[in-house]
Specification:
Oligomer: single chain
Strand content: 5-15%
Shape: globular
Number of strands: 6
Radius of gyration: 21 Å
Structural class: alpha+beta
Strand order of the largest sheet: 1-2-3
Length: about 220
């Protein structure tokens, strides 16, 4: 008797399964490169290897200018978006549902002074289109702090704050009374970063005048 396959979500919670699937997809695309759309259209296949493969009109070569050893997919997405923007592309569409990708697109769009049209579209059937360029233009006053605020309040690799959602975090940023320019800056001072982070978290919990944990007891 054949053992039924586990549901997709269950199978993809195992890192080795995801890596194997990525390898299979990349191998399939490389093997079918002669059947892919031609007319100068370019496909970049990014797999486990540090250097992506570029496929165009049936030819394949390594795209060394996109070489990276970073393991996080969202960082690779940002790298390739910035590469396209710097190469003169007028419009870029990112297909993703990840909040980390959304926040990083906003942040790097501004700090790297990107000017092209950039949108982010979800993967679900009722997917929404978010105008990254328009969002940055509308909320440019808080974009410089949105990345450290997102990390501090909870992301893929950082636990979230109890009872504090992203809406509350954005309100604190809009008040403009707390900054996070020391968090993640290089070179940086750990004491300054801790002080800013503590004051920001205290403000999220309704204590805007407190700057140290002891005062919150």
């Amino acid at each position: 008797m054949l053992t039924p396959l586990p549901p997709q979500k269950v199978a993809l919670t195992v890192t080795q399964n995801k890596l194997q699937l990525i390898k299979l997809i990349c191998a399939f695309l490389r093997g079918q490169r002669n059947l892919l759309p031609h007319n100068g259209r370019l496909l970049v296949v990014t797999g486990p290897e540090p250097t992506p493969k570029e496929i165009c009109d049936g030819d394949m070569r390594e795209q060394s200018d996109l070489r990276t050893t970073h393991e996080e997919a969202y960082m690779i997405i940002i790298q390739q978006v910035l590469h396209l923007a710097n190469s003169g592309k007028l419009s870029i569409c990112v297909v993703a549902d990840d909040t980390d990708v959304f926040v990083m697109l906003l942040y790097y769009y501004k700090v790297r002074q990107v000017t092209c049209n950039l949108v982010m579209i979800g993967t679900s059937s009722g997917r929404k289109c978010v105008d990254i360029k328009g969002t940055v233009e509308k909320h440019g006053d808080i974009i410089d702090h949105i990345l450290p605020a997102h990390v501090l309040s909870g992301c893929d690799s950082i636990s979230s704050l109890w009872g504090i959602g992203k809406e509350r975090v954005l309100k604190v940023l809009r008040w403009g009374k707390k900054t996070l320019n020391k968090l993640g800056s290089t070179p940086g001072n750990m004491y300054d970063a801790m002080s800013q982070s503590t004051a920001f978290i205290a403000s999220c919990y309704g204590f805007p005048k407190e700057a140290d944990v002891t005062s919150l007891h």
